[in-house]
Amino acid sequence: MTAWRGGRCYGAGVSASQPVRGTRVRGTRQAEALASALECLAGFRSAQDIHAELRRRGERIGLTTVYRHLMVLSEDGAVDTIRDEDGETLYRRCETSEHHHHVTCRSCGRSVEVEGRAVELWADRVAAEAGFVDVDHTVEIFGLCPACAAK
Amino acid sequence: MTAWRGGRCYGAGVSASQPVRGTRVRGTRQAEALASALECLAGFRSAQDIHAELRRRGERIGLTTVYRHLMVLSEDGAVDTIRDEDGETLYRRCETSEHHHHVTCRSCGRSVEVEGRAVELWADRVAAEAGFVDVDHTVEIFGLCPACAAK
DNA sequence: CCGATAGTGAAAACCGTTTTCATGCTTTCC
DNA sequence: GGAAAGCATGAAAACGGTTTTCACTATCGG
Ligand SMILES: [Mn+2]
Ligand SMILES: [Mn+2]
Ligand SMILES: [Zn+2]
Ligand SMILES: [Zn+2]
């Protein structure tokens, strides 16, 4: 698969997936470098981790730009985000467009995407019983992956 | 029910639920005021909200103290904590000692405690299938409560 | 090339939370 | 009662991840 390219405008008021009429999208060195890094990294990583990784590779890119692209990619569903126990946001390339959750390693960040009709049904039922509407849920599973558990 | 009293030492190395031999627990005006506020507040609130509420009631208490007590209370299982979408920690008096989750109103913070054998089993199964050990999970459901939905 | 303008990034602001530390309060011991 | 011991308090400062600012740069249609 070719590296991700293109993107969207950063300007205010732009929220549709299509660029606003009269605007253009520019491919930049930085966007491509980030996409390529996300392609390689196995698990969930913080923005600062990813930035450090890019620098390690010799890329010239600012932390602000990493944050900006990650924000857009996650809005577009191209990367998943979770919050670790310290409240730090972690990012990882998303592998499916279906609704899903993760089993993530606390130690190395490695993550497996899982789908589960059972939880979805449970969440909807429980919320309905409480009389709540416009319902939404977060489900994250953390543990030690086989590799980290072996240590 | 009488207001919560007692507590635990703040010193390092104290983690048991029983006070360390030779130390005593002090009931302070501030601890009591916080307990009483938690008793009244219906839903999940931020530490700053709770502090503001206490000040509104005329209590003289510092924000640091509110944070300190909430931290201890949550470690002891007397209050539940969740993270809102901005990553801010919200607190609420816990009503049960059983493992449980919440259906929480995005708008007013009102929350219902729910237990669900189904999710617990699902989480354990999914993690085991991925070969993860020492597993743990977070499950939170958000929506609009009946009152807020009516508006 | 040029001009319009989206993208970049160093530095500063933001903001919830934690740490510091001097000053209270209780409790304990005499 | 008095004094010493040490937990509790809270204003102020530090912390750290993230966002904002804004002057500058790079891209690309024409
Ligand atoms: Mn789900
Ligand atoms: Mn559970
Ligand atoms: Zn691992
Ligand atoms: Zn509500």
β-strand percent of chain A reads 15-25%
Q: Largest interface, by Cβ-Cβ below 8 angstroms: which chains and how many residues each? A: A-B, 33 and 33 residues
Approximate shape of chain A:
globular
The CATH topology assignment of the largest domain in chain A is: Arc Repressor Mutant, subunit A
Summarize the biggest pleated sheet of chain A.
3 strands, antiparallel
Protein name (chains A, B): Transcriptional repressor
Family (chains A, B): Belongs to the Fur family.
Cofactor (chains A, B): Mn(2+); Fe(2+); Zn(2+)
InterPro entries (chains A, B): FUR, Fur_C, WH-like_DNA-bd_sf, WH_DNA-bd_sf
Could you please describe the fold and organization of this structure?
2 copies of one chain form a homodimer. With 151 residues, chain A is an alpha+beta fold. The first copy, chain A, has 2 domains: 1-97, Arc Repressor Mutant, subunit A; 99-151, Ferric-uptake regulator, C-terminal dimerisarion domain (Dna Ligase, domain 1, 2-Layer Sandwich). Chain A contains 5 helices and 6 strands, in the order H-E-H-H-E-E-E-E-H-E-H. Chain A has helices at residues 29-40, 47-56, 63-75, 117-129, 146-150; strands at 45-46, 79-83, 89-93, 101-105, 111-114, 133-144. Chain A has a 3-stranded antiparallel β-sheet with strand order 1-3-2. In chain A, strands 5-4-6 form a 3-stranded mixed β-sheet. In chain A, a hairpin with a 5-residue loop joins strand 2 and strand 3. In chain A, helix 1 (29-40) crosses helix 2 (47-56) and helix 2 crosses helix 3. The longest helix of chain A is centred in the middle third of the chain and has 13 residues, at 63-75. Chain A starts with 28 loop residues before the first helix and ends with a helix. The A-B interface holds A 83, 87, 89, 103, 105-106, 112, 114, 116, 118-119, 122-123, 126-127, 130-146, 149 and B 83, 87, 89, 103, 105-106, 112, 114, 116, 118-119, 122-123, 126-127, 130-146, 149. Strand 6 (133-144) of chain A pairs antiparallel with strand 6 of chain B. The structure holds manganese (II) ion (2 copies) and zinc ion (ZN) (2 copies). The structure holds a DNA duplex (30 and 30 nucleotides). Chains A, B: This is Transcriptional repressor. Chains A, B: Fe cation binds at residues 99, 120, 137. Chains A, B: It is found in: Cytoplasm. Chains A, B: GO terms for molecular function: DNA-binding transcription factor activity; transcription cis-regulatory region binding; zinc ion binding.
